[in-house]
Inverse folding.
């Protein structure tokens, strides 16, 4: 039976979930505090770049199953189920900032008209759903399991493939502790149940930790293969052959064994820090995860230093083309992107930098100096230096070939398909220098070298 659903938050998780749940036949209202975002979404235009999202958004708006509003209280009152999909950014100590989640719980409590299931979709540390339950019970006077139920339903959406992952998930994890709520969630996800998607039913704490354990493990695989790539490079081995051979082992699998400049995005950096902080809170040794965090930060720095080394030790007064600003292909997300560290390092070294990305340019402009929703933390002195250098020596180009004009060196930071199939003959004609640093190993080294380039990849 279709449900009336309200989704609090229209970021990556909230928007994709809203569209997907509506496509399952539910009546869905997405809530955002910003009027401009609501108006944009209501017009059928996504506020994030995600393959297939626009088609699903427009189809469900036209069908009347999906709408957006700034009136959260009214949307909560009208709902059978309320999904909390707000942000949980990392605090200064690594713990997730749960202020938005707690504010959402209080809003639910104030507008609890009849039984509702409250589903936490945001990535939250162990114990958060119990806290949500306590807040709603205390402020509404209702008994958990009777006046309302709390369910933990973590997301496993890959940016760039989030729509695909929503409709074809590996599993659905549901921390659910009463039968009435279970019945509601079975109705919500009936479309996935019918195609035999595995459902994992567990308690709240288990569901919360499944999400963190999954992301921390994937981050560990990336960090491991990056360290092995550095070793392969130092010893004359080929990391691609190593990774391919490792992936043939069914116990390991080939996924996430791709060397590069380090992981980024909204999930792995935040979630590894949060699980390490949770370990400290409970007195549990999380040394493996802490080393993953340290090593990944170092990998970004090593990438920038390697480029400078390939250019003779300095890029001062030289021109560098940087292709790819998003942390990965098929997204406009630049949060914790290695490109930020690389461009900052180049500018501080005195380089003229020409950049291009198919989708992420506008987000990158703010993130480079630590501003906006994608910005990182920079002290005021460093921010000022980078702003001054960017104003004088940073150019945003409309395509990859504009970026290549007159460049002494090229670095590929994001594995967009357009860069995999880069026209090397045209590149040769446009560039002034011969250095190509393929930080994603997307080019054919033999072909690149045959054209006279000085080529370097990662671990090869």
């Amino acid at each position: 039976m279709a449900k009336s659903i309200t989704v609090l938050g229209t970021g990556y998780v909230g928007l994709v979930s809203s569209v997907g749940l509506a496509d399952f036949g539910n009546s869905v209202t997405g809530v955002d505090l910003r009027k401009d975002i609501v108006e944009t979404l209501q017009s059928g235009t996504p506020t994030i770049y995600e393959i297939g999202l626009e088609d699903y958004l427009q189809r469900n708006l036209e069908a009347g199953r999906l709408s957006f509003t700034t009136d959260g209280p009214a949307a909560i009152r009208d709902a059978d189920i309320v999904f909390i999909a707000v942000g949980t950014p990392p605090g200064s100590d690594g713990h997730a900032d749960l202020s938005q989640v707690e504010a959402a719980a209080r809003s639910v409590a104030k507008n609890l008209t009849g039984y509702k299931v409250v589903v936490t979709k945001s990535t939250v540390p162990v114990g958060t759903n119990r806290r949500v339950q306590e807040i709603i019970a205390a402020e509404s006077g209702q008994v958990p399991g009777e006046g309302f139920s709390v369910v933990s339903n973590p997301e496993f959406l890959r940016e760039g493939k989030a729509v695909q992952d929503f409709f074809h998930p590996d599993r659905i994890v549901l921390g659910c502790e009463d039968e009435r709520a279970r019945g509601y969630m079975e109705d919500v996800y009936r479309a996935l149940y019918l195609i035999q998607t595995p459902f994992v039913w567990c308690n709240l704490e288990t569901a919360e930790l499944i999400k963190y354990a999954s992301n921390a493990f994937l981050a560990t695989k990336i960090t491991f293969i990056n360290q092995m790539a550095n070793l392969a490079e130092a010893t004359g081995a080929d990391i691609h052959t190593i990774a391919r051979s490792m992936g043939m082992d069914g116990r390991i699998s080939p996924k996430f064994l791709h060397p590069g400049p380090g992981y980024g995005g909204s999930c792995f950096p935040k979630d590894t820090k949060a699980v390490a902080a949770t370990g400290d809170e409970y007195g549990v040794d999380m040394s493996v995860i802490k080393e993953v965090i340290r090593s990944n930060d170092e990998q970004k720095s090593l990438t920038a230093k390697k480029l400078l080394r390939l250019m003779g030790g300095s890029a001062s007064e030289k021109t560098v083309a940087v292709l790819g600003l998003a942390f990965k292909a098929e997204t406009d997300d630049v949060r914790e992107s290695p490109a930020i560290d690389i461009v900052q390092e180049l500018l501080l070294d005195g380089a003229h930098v020409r950049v291009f990305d198919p989708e992420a340019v506008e987000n990158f402009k703010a993130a480079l100096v630590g501003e906006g929703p994608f910005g990182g933390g920079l002290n005021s002195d460093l921010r000022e230096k980078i702003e001054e250098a960017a104003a004088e020596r940073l150019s945003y180009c409309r395509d990859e070939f504009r970026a290549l004009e007159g460049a002494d060196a090229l670095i590929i930071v994001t594995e967009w398909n357009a860069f995999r199939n880069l026209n090397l003959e045209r590149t040769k004609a446009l560039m002034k220098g011969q250095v190509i640093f393929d930080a994603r190993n997307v080019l054919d080294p033999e072909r690149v070298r045959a054209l006279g380039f000085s080529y370097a990849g990662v671990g090869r």
In short: The chain is about 45% helix and 15% strand.
